[in-house]
Design goal:
It is a single chain. The chain has 175 residues and is α/β, with parallel strands linked by helices. Helix content is 55%, strand content 13%. It is built from seven helices and five strands. A five-stranded parallel beta sheet has the order 2-3-1-4-5, with helices on both faces. Helix 1 crosses helix 7, helix 2 packs across helix 3 and helix 5 crosses helix 6. It starts with a strand and ends with a helix.
Length: 175
């Protein structure tokens, strides 16, 4: 099996689906943002604030190359990870890439339900958020769509829907 790499916009359910798939397959799960935080001993938000996006993206690139060398793992990446350097091509070389695709409205709903602080979303009204997500998604989809597999995700708001998504993912990957 080797590596399964999950990409998509923030709020698509990459970590949720990755953890559920990991549990079902009995292989380790790594959230790239968590990995960065544990290695750098700072939150992604702190790294963004202290070093700026360009520096953060370099750290992210280095950590992606580190974690993508692990055998038999599931990795979920930050929403921007595939969009910088040659990251998406590298990910495709390293394993099976899956884009969890969702509309701006669904992503907005997931982000509202989530408890994670997202530095790029702070201080925006509902309308501004929806517009921002739509704009970013239109740019990032060029990268996301390079994934080997695309899985349309609807609202992952309960355990049953997460199980269904994991089942669809396993079918997509033949595992």
């Amino acid at each position: 099996m080797n590596r399964i790499i999950i990409i998509g916009y923030m709020g698509a359910g990459k970590t949720t689906v990755g953890k559920a798939l990991s549990k079902e397959l009995g292989i380790p799960f790594y959230d790239l943002d968590w990995y960065i935080e544990s290695r750098m001993r700072k939150t992604v938000a702190q790294l963004f604030a202290e070093r700026g996006e360009e520096n953060f993206r370099q750290i992210e690139y280095n950590m992606l190359h580190e974690v993508a060398e692990f055998e038999d793992v599931i990795i979920s990446c930050g929403g921007g990870t595939p969009c910088f350097f040659d990251n998406i091509d590298y990910m495709n070389e390293q394993g099976e890439t899956i884009y969890l695709k969702a509309t701006p409205e669904v992503l907005y709903g997931h982000l509202k339900m989530g408890k994670t602080v997202r530095p790029l979303l702070l201080g925006k009204t509902e309308d501004e958020l929806l517009s921002y997500i739509g704009q970013q998604l239109s740019v990032r989809e060029n990268y996301y769509n390079k994934a080997k597999h695309v899985l349309d995700v609807s609202l992952l708001d309960n355990y049953e829907k997460i199980k269904i998504t994991v089942k669809e993912l396993r079918k997509l990957l033949n595992i």
